[in-house]
UniProtKB/TrEMBL annotation:
Single GO term (MF): nitronate monooxygenase activity
InterPro entries: Aldolase_TIM (IPR013785), NMO (IPR004136)
Taxonomic lineage: Eukaryota, Fungi, Dikarya, Basidiomycota, Agaricomycotina
Species for this entry: Jaapia argillacea MUCL 33604
Cross-referenced Pfam families: NMO
PANTHER family membership: 2-NITROPROPANE DIOXYGENASE, 2-NITROPROPANE DIOXYGENASE FAMILY, PUTATIVE (AFU_ORTHOLOGUE AFUA_2G09850)-RELATED
Alphabetically ordered keywords of this record: Flavoprotein, FMN, Oxidoreductase
Name the record gives this protein: Uncharacterized protein
Amino acid sequence: MPIVTPVTRLLDINSPIIVPPMAGCSGGALAAAVTAGGGFGFIAVGLGYDGTGRDTVEGFEGQLSLTRSLLNIPASPAPLPIGIGFIGWLLDLPGAPGPTLLNIALENRPKAIWFSFGNDLGPWIKVVHEFNEKIKGEHKILIFAQVNTVEEARKAAVEWKVDAIVAQGIEAGGHGRSAAPLLFNFIPALLQSLPSPHPPIIAAGGISTGSQIASLLALGASACVVGTRFALSTECLYPPSHKSAIAKAGFGATVRTLAYDYAGGTAMWPEGINGRALRNKVYESLEGGASEQEIREKFLEAREKSDEDYIICWAGVGVALFNEEKPAEVLVRELHEEAVTTLKATSEKFAGST
């Protein structure tokens, strides 16, 4: 049974489940499998697919070709029924391949492009609007903007004229605003504050079960981003050490900090942004008073020894709600069925109540 929302209509999908562009995890195979399952998957751009922490034109084109092959889509300019995600500050970085990669993405005509974490995403969003004007009538690339505050959401809706707003709560794994609101407060705040009509709201942060998806749809979200659950999917590019750590994680296993960016050499995020990851010796080094340079040196030394106590494993607060690796297509269908069952059960439970 499909779940029909403004986002599922916008993307022409059956399930309001979106798997985000997760660096080091979301490649062509994951995006294709999620889309094949009835949801909507993204390829991440910016920090590599092979553990190097950087992207190349060849690597990105390889992921796009893989997606086309798995979904049996002809070569460009045939549109791709997936999304592609870009990090704003990496697009801004002088000499980096970001603008070239964005042009490659546009020429491949994905269904959507997701922008996040920029000091000013407006110029990059304008590039997509201009490309859409150029190919008017052939295909429209939808624009998603990730936000952490009501003010950012208003700017995305009114000034940038995006097609969907991704509202990320503080529960989310990976990077986000350190002072972001709780998701269950953020969604109502956006619905009350944004001018009408406004782009549909997509909820993100700590979502790992179908019942959570159902509750957020009831709260007013039009779709849900499910990230960490798909980090433990067959198609995720994470190495076995990361997947094992995710499978073993319990409640309270994550921490929000810049320690992992110090370790990975990526502490260039916009002001107020940090990351949520599995707590381990990287974070303990920071707590113990180690400097940014000392944390980096300890991490590099541990990586040479394959010391799994020092890995960088991004994860949201919902990481404790699952422990089994499954194919992404299966996960989409299971989450969808659980969401449908929860919505039906809730309706029946309160039917006739006064």
